[in-house]
Amino acid sequence: MDGDGDRSRKRGGGREARRAERTSGAHGAVHVPYIVRGIPTYDVMGEEGLIRIEAAADRILAETGIEFRDDPEALELWRRAGAHVEGTLVKFPKDMLREIVATAPAEFTQFARNPANNVRIGGKNVVFAPAYGSPFVMDLDKGRRFGTIEDFENFIKLAQSSPWFHHSGGTICEPTDVAVNKRHLDMVYAHVRYSDRAFLGSVTAAERAADSVEMARIVFGREFAENNCVIMGNFNVNSPLVWDGTMTRGMREYARAGQGTVLVPFILGGAMGPVTSAGAIAQSLAETLAGCALTQLERKGAPVVFGNFLSSMSLRSGSPTFGTPEPAIGSMVIGQLARRLNLPLRCSGNFTTSKLPDAQAMTEGTMSMLAAVHCGANYILHSAGFLDGLLSMSYEKFVLDTDLCGALHSYLKGVQVDDDQLAVDAFAEVGPGNHFFGCSHTMAHYETAFWDSETADNEPFEKWEANGSVDAATRANRLWKKRLAEYEAPPLDQGIDEALREFIARRKAAVADMWY
Amino acid sequence: MDGDGDRSRKRGGGREARRAERTSGAHGAVHVPYIVRGIPTYDVMGEEGLIRIEAAADRILAETGIEFRDDPEALELWRRAGAHVEGTLVKFPKDMLREIVATAPAEFTQFARNPANNVRIGGKNVVFAPAYGSPFVMDLDKGRRFGTIEDFENFIKLAQSSPWFHHSGGTICEPTDVAVNKRHLDMVYAHVRYSDRAFLGSVTAAERAADSVEMARIVFGREFAENNCVIMGNFNVNSPLVWDGTMTRGMREYARAGQGTVLVPFILGGAMGPVTSAGAIAQSLAETLAGCALTQLERKGAPVVFGNFLSSMSLRSGSPTFGTPEPAIGSMVIGQLARRLNLPLRCSGNFTTSKLPDAQAMTEGTMSMLAAVHCGANYILHSAGFLDGLLSMSYEKFVLDTDLCGALHSYLKGVQVDDDQLAVDAFAEVGPGNHFFGCSHTMAHYETAFWDSETADNEPFEKWEANGSVDAATRANRLWKKRLAEYEAPPLDQGIDEALREFIARRKAAVADMWY
Lengths: 516, 516
Prior knowledge:
The structure is a homodimer of 516-residue chains.
Chain A: H1 15-23, E1 35-36, H2 47-64, E2 66-69, H3 72-81, E3 84-86, E4 89-91, H4 96-101, E5 107-110, E6 119-122, E7 125-128, E8 136-139, E9 143-146, H5 149-160, H6 183-194, H7 206-220, H8 222-227, E10 232-236, E11 242-244, H9 245-256, E12 260-264, E13 267-268, H10 277-298, E14 304-307, E15 310-313, E16 320-321, H11 325-340, E17 345-346, H12 359-374, E18 379-380, E19 386-387, E20 392-394, H13 395-413, H14 424-430, H15 440-445, H16 461-466, H17 472-486, H18 494-510
Parallel strand pairs in A: 2-11, 7-18, 8-20, 10-12, 12-14, 13-15, 14-17
Antiparallel strand pairs in A: 1-7, 2-4, 3-4, 5-6, 8-9, 15-16, 19-20
């Protein structure tokens, strides 16, 4: 049911070898490049509701309009496409944007430097990537502090060494010890050097986007990169209803190069959008649709991912809240809307406002992560590490979340039904009142039957107590240290490595450091 | 969308009063007697798979059969109904059981002594009840110890004081300081005395079942109890494929009195059933179907709930595991099968093997609890308190889970779509680039827009740190103590109270204490 396995990781051998793999935990588990879901999406809204939300989005687009600030070329593209441009405000006739986005692919491949790790984005495919954008990092030993390039590299290594991840992500944390206008070079380099999976480039300025794409060309070859998606960028709407030039110039840079863009509103209900879900969803549809269409005006057929990031707010303090029920349900509706546009989908992730990898973190995190897989998201950014309302990447939470990603591999397989899975012969063999422990059906299946968590403790209470009564966060603390100690970098072609270093040195030498 | 509110709890007053309710937390929140779901069930399996599983269950029933031990009357009922009885083994011709269960109601009301708390079980209704059956209790102060009648009463009080619970449950923990053959009397009394919601009676022996039903008759009146469901019992299959006489005699006692039964296999895959999900689901269907049919042979139309309790096992230790992905998905398939039988459904709950209210507890707990609401369960036992693989009731986890139950009230509402919810006028009022904080649409909705957790901390990091950097378990520890300190018993008619005490004294005096 899953996609083709990564052959470079599969070990040979028979039953003993398979058992050794299983009992060695996730490290010995079979990595798949991405998940092909075996269960349907969870469609919570009926046709009538969807049509009303689409009509509301159409009305926002036609009557309120969307501002495109600080990007005259984007305005010119809109003008030529037939939109009504009044200053920086753009209004869209009904159906115009739907017609334009029809040229975007429903499904595409992002190539990885190890071809076994290429990911298909769209359709029934699900790709997990780390959290993105935190200025701080946290662990149980040192608490919260600003992220550094060492932290950044550590998280790439942790993602790379997990068989339950498919994508290296982008700005996993801000490496605040590197100048703002140069850190994108070190980040892209770290993704290439410490991971052999697909990754995201920089988006914080058009020239940084261009540098990111250029580095991808060095890795994949100029000609290959011209005709294939080898890097993506994640771009945010300045909700409500504003696309800033920094973002649109960056995303046009990626699209012009034939590279992928992920376009995401950030709607905190009651602040950057209405406080009611239906309104926030309509706004989200309008904002993302306009962005997706702009990529197609820049280059027809450029891969683009329809993004979603709904959130709620505390009624008592006005603080943002994450992992709450309303955005979880809202995400499922947005998934339905994205499929009606035939576009790949990015949705939610593992969100929380908790400041510790505790019960709150995983209640909120599990609810939002399940919403992401239920809604049919093809690319799930923020799959691991997210704490503190996206302000901090947590080493322990990263490991706990990665384990949940592993569980979701089993979850998304669904239930297979054939005579063997139905255990037809086993009932005849065992009969009423006897146990299935030793029967031949159990022996044939027990090694692969159930998800085997690395962070959960399933031992009896007495044994757990004898082992020190530790909680899941403490186990996760031990596990990330073990992972980093055992990490081995995947091989990288020396010529590529040198060319990247040379490019970086040249670009760094060209300008003075900027620190804000 | 929800059911009728409990008028006795709703406060009067306008906007200020509503705000006071919300800001006072869950205690001021509006209690509903049960949830009427506004989102569909999550149907993960197609028609073809369901038909194959039903055929496999039919084959188990016809060829392997089910043992009914130590209950000659049950065997006689089967014989008369046309089953093949060989000793204690009963085999069922195809379709026989489906025809028999057709007399069971698809939906029924269990009455509470406060009529505002009556629950409808079946259809789109969802009823939350506490966990059931732990010998131990736990809290962060005193650790794990055997449960007592004081603990039992405490958990009833905690459930009663939560607006997010609908049902008082049954053996919330074993009150091990009361004799085994007498504790059912104290347990039923505690449910009546400290809660005004519906509850479960005892099932551990036919005479204890009879005592439970008799006490319900005292509370509700003999005539009313003859024609209405005023108590239910939760009965377990001795999987695989055995119904013990203790259980069948008890459940026939309830059914004969026209009272409700909840019938539940306990299938730990690889031990009490096949290690593969499809086989475990087929077995579950066979076992539950046979039990449901027996209630109808005892009394046509007796309310019966189709139960499900799938679990997995650790491949490394052979220990049971809970809250894992395979049973979560399996539960959704069982939900589909129950609906095809037109029977009310009990499913999973908030499960975990963790020994602490930590990240593991809520990862596993949230995954299994969401499966329970997604699969369409109408009665969700084990909604709160479950730790340690069902061996311990946790005070802290009870409060954390209750909070999750609150979130699920919002979740199950789904997304409402009308002009007001679509915020049509708000977009015109606010426009691109402005915030929605103060707009009239936000002002009209913000008090009720989002679920407001009592245990989550959404404050900024600095404020959280200044408040002592406490984790969710510590907040829960404070909260359950506050709840118990503030608890007030609902009024109980003095005549009923005296009659119950008299009955209990008489029954206790009649026999010597048994301690095992």
